[in-house]
Amino acid sequence: MKAGVAWKERTEEKSNKRSIMARRTRRPEATQKIALTPLKKQCEACGQPLGVAYHGHRDVTTLSGQWHLTLVIHQCAQPDCPNYHQRRRPEEEGRWALPHGEFGLEIIALIGQWRFREHRSVPEMHQALQARGISIAQRSVTHLMHRYEELVALRIADHDRIKVRLQKQGHVILALDGLQPDVGPRASSGSSATASPKKSSWPAPGWIP
Hints:
Structural class: alpha+beta
Largest sheet: 4 strands, mixed
Distance between the termini: 60 Å
Strand content: 15-25%
Number of domains: 2
Helix content: 25-40%
Radius of gyration: 24 Å
Shape: flat
C-alpha cells in the first residue's frame, strides 16, 4: 500500500515538473522570412559541386520580430568522395542563434548588458523584453543569461586570441569588477594605475568581446 502511494507521489511530481517546463503560450507566428544557403558550392575533398540534401526550417525570435529561417542543406553526391553525404549547413545560421536556440544572439547580448552592466534583475529584464513586444517566459530569461555567461567564459578562455592581442598591445592594465581604471600616461606607461569606484563595466558586450 505504501509503495503504491509513493509511486503515485513520484508520478505526480514528474507531471508537475513537466507542466512547469512546458510552454504555456503558443509561439508567435513568424512575420518575416529568409532563406539561408551555404557559401561554399564545391566539395572541399573532391571539388565537385555540392547538391541540395534537404531544406530545414526553424523559427528564431529577434529584437526585430519573429523570423522563419529556411535552411538549404548541401551534401556531396559523389560516392567515391571522402565527404560523401556529409551535410553542410549554412554558415550564416550561427549568426542568428545558438544551435536549437529559440531566441537570437542579439537578445542574449542585450540580456548580458542589462545584467552585468546595468545590474538588472531577471524580473526587470523579463518586463523590459515584454515591453519590446518579445514573447518570452521569465525562466527563459534566466536560461539566456546563463548562456551569455558561458559564451563570455569561452571567449575569455581563448588563450591564443588573448596572447595575440596582448603582444600587439605591449602592456596589461588590471582592474577589479566594479572599479574603472583611470586612463592616462601612468596607465599607458606600465606604471601602477589608480582606480576609481564606478558602475561595473564587465562584461561590456558589443556583442561579445
